[in-house]
Amino acid sequence: MIPQGRRQRAGLIASRVAAAAGAALVALAALAPDGRAAAQQAGAGAAETPRTARSAAPIDITGYWVSIITEDWRWRMMTPPKGDYASLPLTNEARRVADGWDLARDEASGNACKPFGVGNIMRMPGRLHITWADDNTLRLDFDAGTQTRLLHFDGSRTPPAKERTWQGYSVADWEVAGQQVELDRNGIPVGGRGRGRGGVPPRGGALRVVTTHMREGYLRKNGVPYSEDAVVTEYFDRVGPEPNGDVFLIVRTVVEDPKYLTMPFITSTNLKLEPNGSKWNPTPCRIDPPAVPGR
Question: How many domains in the chain?
């Protein structure tokens, strides 16, 4: 037989448990429907804030850069004569178009910017200014031809339904060095959870850019064409600083064009970082007349 005092204490505990359970039920009832929504919002606020392309950048390529031309001088610094398309994997149709090039006709028809399109703009001598237009868009301004490109990290792989432009529509992605990295739906490394080889956080990387939806332009100043169906893929790498402090930007460009090229056309362009924009000098789309052989 249980003593009376023990029975009283057991009854008191039971009543307190019942009261706590009742209070919990009241609280749960308060969550529906408005309380439930408030709880969901609180949980969403506690989730990790998505990183932007700017904050996730493995390298910094912003600043003023100047072309370093140590090769292809005759095709980049001068306007080569008509018919000079050595080293280019051209189709017969591309040769036919190039052989019919006329500089004066291009200028008169409003096509003077054809050599300054996305397929050749990196090869033009001059300066490049790279800035962030917003946290998910890089802006590239070229003083040659006063051209501007926007590189979109927003995950959209479909160009907008509007008129084609000289610089086309560019989609960018960071490629992280040694990556086995968790990416979000926009291809941006997720903060804190990516690990490199051996569990070491990745350091450095490159920028990959794919451009489509452009106007037909020239691979060289002398009328060697690429079509509006071309795909231009670029890889941007920052190198340095060197022992003397120099920092370089290396841009590898791959142009694929089923109409005018028999195989991908690949070039590598070097630029050096400048301390400021004191030498920045935008100029219109204009090239010198073609060189005359023997003169």
Answer: 2
